[in-house]
Design brief:
Distance between the termini: 53 Å
CATH superfamily of the largest domain: Type I PLP-dependent aspartate aminotransferase-like (Major domain)
Structural class: alpha/beta
Strand content: 15-25%
CATH class of the largest domain: Alpha Beta
Helix content: 25-40%
CATH architecture of the largest domain: 3-Layer(aba) Sandwich
Largest sheet: 7 strands, mixed
Number of domains: 2
Oligomer: single chain
Radius of gyration: 21 Å
CATH topology of the largest domain: Aspartate Aminotransferase, domain 2
Number of helices: 13
Length: about 375
């Protein structure tokens, strides 16, 4: 299909970027497993010279993701961290970044252990009140990096309010949209300049591929990112591109079930006697629930819980007692996962810093899959005894 911009999300998920192969008519985009391309004479080729720069399978995927995020351009990376690394490389020594005090441990580790060594300063602040952000902006500030919902306490950041601040001070606003997916939230529509996804998660959806993506509308930012993308080489292979593109064809269907199951489980956990607190933005009592309701179409399948019993022994017992949920890192796959952030995804964050953000030892994060919800509820019941 040539112009599909007027079609609904589910139709674009299936058809965007997926034109029939010109040489064979194959309805599925072929896996162009090649590292280089024949040139007619030096410099004259069919748009492809070397696969680090361009690959037809990856290009088809990029068109699909751009369409789902209502963006003009997409670049795919060999991991989500490769995508984040590329965004921070837009900056120079002396530049400053404002970001949240609750974000993925890998992002925190990259910011503090890699880029701070190159003279980039990061302010880790509470971003749930957009009014708190402006006091950290100065002449050296160049980027606002926002996760929403955040990992793992599900803070909701007002994207539109951040975009207004970015416009006022001539900053770039980048939003990690991994937890929401483009099915639930489109930050570009709300004024963000860059959207980042760990495509490993909901976009791929089957826990069989590692990939990242950046989506933009601004041509200048795209050119800068594309230069770093090609020059530094964190590009994915065609097989991984094929797998994510296959996963995207059912994103809308999977997200409907993730949301349905997530709601049922959040409501169950809220009433459970072993649970002290449930983090899920669908509750009217959740901080910034109204903002979540405004900028998201539903509330997703990510939930975090704080156990009443604060002992690490009990937390480990519960985490290891599931029969349907699997104890593992990552999220967004069709299968349900349980994770202990303090020792797994957020272990690189110093204890005092992560606990100040709510990532305590008795917190568990659930990635609710698409199984029969009754089986998941029964599994939770037996594990929490």
């Amino acid at each position: 299909m040539s112009d599909i911009s007027n079609l609904k999300f589910g139709t674009r998920a299936i058809h965007a970027g997926a034109d029939a192969d010109a040489s064979t008519g194959a309805i599925m985009t072929p896996i162009f497993q090649t590292s280089t391309y024949v040139q007619e004479y030096p410099g004259k080729h069919k748009g492809y010279a070397y696969a680090r720069g361009k690959n037809p399978t990856r290009e088809a995927l990029q068109k699909n993701i751009a369409s789902l995020e209502n963006g003009k351009h997409c670049l795919c990376f060999s991991s989500g961290m490769g995508a984040i690394d590329t965004v921070i490389k837009l900056l120079a020594p002396g530049d400053e970044v404002i970001t949240g005090d609750d974000l993925y441990g890998g992002s925190y580790r990259m910011f503090t252990k890699i880029f701070m060594n190159y003279g980039i300063k990061f302010h880790f602040i509470n971003m749930t009140d957009a009014g708190n952000i402006e006091q950290y902006i100065n002449a050296k500030t160049k980027l606002i990096w926002a996760e929403t919902p955040t990992n793992p306490t599900m803070q909701i950041i007002d994207i539109e309010a951040c975009a207004k601040l970015a416009a006022k001070h001539n900053l770039i606003l980048a939003v990690d949209n991994t937890f929401a997916s483009p099915y639930l939230q489109n930050p570009l529509n709300l004024g963000a300049h860059i959207v980042m996804h760990s495509a490993t998660k909901y976009l791929g959806g089957h826990s069989d591929v590692v990939m990242g993506a950046l989506i933009v509308n601004d041509a200048k930012i795209y050119e800068q990112l594309a230069f770093i993308h090609n020059t530094c080489g964190a590009t994915p292979g065609p097989m991984d591109s094929f797998l994510v593109m296959r996963g995207l064809k059912t994103l809308h269907l999977r997200m409907e079930r993730h949301c349905y199951n997530g709601r049922k489980i959040a409501e169950f956990l809220e009433k459970h006697p072993a649970i002290e607190k449930v983090y899920w933005p669908g509750f009217t009592t959740h901080p910034n629930h109204l903002i979540a309701k405004k900028q998201m179409r539903d509330f997703g399948g990510m939930i975090s819980i704080v156990l009443k019993d604060k002992s690490i022994e009990n937390t480990f017992r519960v985490a290891s007692s599931f029969k349907v949920f699997s104890l593992a890192e990552s999220l967004g796959g069709v299968e349900s996962l349980i994770n202990h952030p303090a020792t797994m995804t957020h272990a690189s964050i110093p204890k005092d810093i992560r606990e100040a953000a709510g990532v305590v030892d008795n917190l568990l994060r659930l990635s609710v899959g698409v199984e029969d919800v009754e089986d998941l509820l029964n599994d939770l019941e037996q594990a929490l005894k």
